Amino acid sequence: MNDASPARPAAPVLDVWCELQCPDCRTALDDLRALRARYGDRLELQLRHFPLEKHKHSFAAAQAAEEAAVQGRAWPYVEAVLERVEELDRTGEPFLVEVARELGLEADEFDTALIDGRHILVVDTDQAEGKAIGVTGTPTYVIGGERLDGSKSQQGLRERIEQIADRLLSEQGA
């Protein structure tokens, strides 16, 4: 007798193309928190990096976010950095290490990761993929094959994401 329950379908994925020095991404945090509260693990929020050249610390911040992911705290780290964009603007990499320390992460590993570049390939790959699908600014969301550009306006985006997520979940019977 097989008493294993059937595999649960994979949660729909919301790719969040983000840049950690971007004030618009900070504004989007409320929407992301609301989506997490509404869907929990039924919707996977996937951080995708799209550092913009106009922000000189954004590439290092993306690498630091990857180190936070390795240490199991990607979203708390991303939120902590975005909440203090002005400090990142002023202080740069030392700020990124300090946030890691504040969150109880291995701050020395952040420092080393920023020096040895162990996460550069992930950030470069995300950025290239974003360009390939038409991402030009942040935040940009992709869900169910639809790209939603939050860099122009956040207005109505959460509602549109919820409509798509609800449709995808109903198609799965979730």
Q: Could you walk me through the main structural features you see in this protein, from its secondary elements to its overall organization?
A:
By secondary structure, this protein is of the alpha+beta class. The protein contains eight helices and four strands. The chain has a four-stranded mixed β-sheet, with helices on both faces. Helix 1 links the parallel strand 1 and strand 2. The N terminus is likely disordered.
Write the topology of this structure.
Blueprint: E1 13-18, H1 23-39, E2 44-49, H2 58-70, H3 74-82, H4 85-91, H5 93-102, H6 107-116, H7 120-132, E3 140-143, E4 146-149, H8 157-172
Parallel strand pairs: 1-2
Antiparallel strand pairs: 1-3, 3-4
Helix pairs in contact: 2-3, 2-5, 2-6, 5-6
Total count of helical runs of at least 4 residues: 8
Principal-axis shape: globular
Give the helix proportion (percent range): 40-55%
- Characterize the main sheet: 4 strands, mixed
Distance from N terminus to C terminus (CA atoms, Å) equals: 26 Å
Q: What fraction strand?
A: 5-15%
Judged by helices, strands and strand pairing, the structural class is: alpha+beta
Order of helix and strand elements from N to C terminus: EHEHHHHHHEEH
Mean pLDDT: 91
Number of strands: 4
Radius of gyration using CA atoms only = 17 Å
Major sheet strand order: 2-1-3-4
Low-confidence segments, ≥5 residues, pLDDT <50? 1-5
Descriptive key words:
8 helices, 174 residues, alpha+beta, disordered N terminus
